Amino acid sequence: MFCFIAPFSLSSKPVSPASLVPLSPKSAGWKRRPQSPLIFPGLGYAAGSQANERDKNLKPRYLSALVIGAVLSGCAGQAETSQPAAPAQSPQSTPAAPQVSAAEQQSFAAWRQDFRGRALAAGIRPAVFDAAFRDVRLNQEVMRLDGRQAEFTRQIWEYLDTATSATRVGNGRQKWQELAPTLKAIEERYGVDAKVIMAIWGMETNYGSFRGNTGIIEGLATLAFEGRRRGFAEEQLIAALRILQSGDTSPERMRGSWAGAMGHTQFMPTSYLQYAQDFTGDGKRDIWGEDPTDALASAAHYLARFGWQQGAPWGLEVTLPAGFDYGVADQDNRRPVAYWRERGVTTLDGRPLPDHGEAAILVPAGARGPAFAVYHNFRVIRRYNNATSYAMAVGHLGDKLAGGGEFRTPWPRHERALSRAEKEELQRRLTARGFDTKGADGVIGPNTIGAIRAFQQSRGQVADGYASESLLKQLR
């Protein structure tokens, strides 16, 4: 999907884009995993809101943990994983991109003619292709956005502050009130809580206020011609042409993020074909227009297909006992609630942990920040955008829209985020001391977390695996 605020990838397996899978063979970090072809990681900021590619199991939209102001939600996905995420666009204006040379445009024209043959072989009618590509040119701005790499990152609490701000909550409650009958009908049909539908809408496009204005055909054609993931972009481009051929929209109305995410809830074209709904009954699955009904129903349908449990929480803040083994705190280490109860995990008021099925313990800021028990619905949200930060933001925003409050345990706000260069330095220094991170790529993945924990244990410290400035100073 395409999120309106930059997603932050948690180090536990990622973000951020929202979102990555361990490299094979295992390395220091993660590789981009395809997100479900459906949604694009937020338009607004990169990293916290943007989406992952779902059709091919792509990782969260090019998210790299907590990318600050970078529009990084990556797309690509394998079927039934998470919607392919598309990098988010910044709501702020950017410098004009340099003009594309005549030679580049000629090369692009040759590629377009070659691609036309592949599109027609895939079943696209000549008239549909020619109408869609009538005014398409190589888009230098899309090339620039695709090639940039974020150096600075933001902490998860900074991301959540923006994602669940008072303004966003207030606007969301107003929209909810305006659309109450529609949301109730969607909730009843798909069995997905209205609060999470609203939260996704808020995260992806700020309730429809920023849906992107890049021509989808031109953007995807540029990426298929000269992008980092040409095969994925071409797959999405064929899907976009199929949408046009179906008559659901026109080339002029098919606009969205530079990475291909479309509409109020930022679906990638492949996800649209698989999950989009005509809830209004007008014969078109319209996620682009001013009326968000079809888009909201499509998001609900997507979540329902991945097993959303109506009425169950995504997670809750918990208290961990003294001496807790942080080595078991991993969002993918799902255990029966009885397992956590036996280890002393309780609610904040000391009551037994509620049983909503298997749960995992998540400590996004290490031992000095809040801890959470996350349940099945948290994993379902990650199907929409694999970034841990995104899933937390959607869950927390939904709770606040429904009247919930802030997290009670304070974040370690004195900790600043490490830059990519500092993360690479941390990895090199750990490896030099005998704690092998399997590479230094500036991405905090499972190997780096394991190396940090081993180093912390060797020093008699709490082994939470958290990459902090204080840890880097110890290694220097």
From TrEMBL:
The organism's place on the tree of life at top rank: Bacteria
An annotated Gene Ontology molecular function: peptidoglycan lytic transglycosylase activity
Segments forming domain Peptidoglycan binding-like: 424-475
Pfam families for this protein: PG_binding_1, SLT_2
Region named Disordered: 81-103
InterPro entries per the UniProt record, alphabetical: Lysozyme-like_dom_sf (IPR023346), MltB-like (IPR043426), MltB_2 (IPR011970), Peptidoglycan-bd-like (IPR002477), PGBD-like_sf (IPR036365), PGBDSf (IPR036366), SLT_2 (IPR031304)
CDD domains: Slt35-like
GO BP terms in the entry: peptidoglycan catabolic process
Domain Transglycosylase SLT: 107-399
Record protein name field: Lytic murein transglycosylase
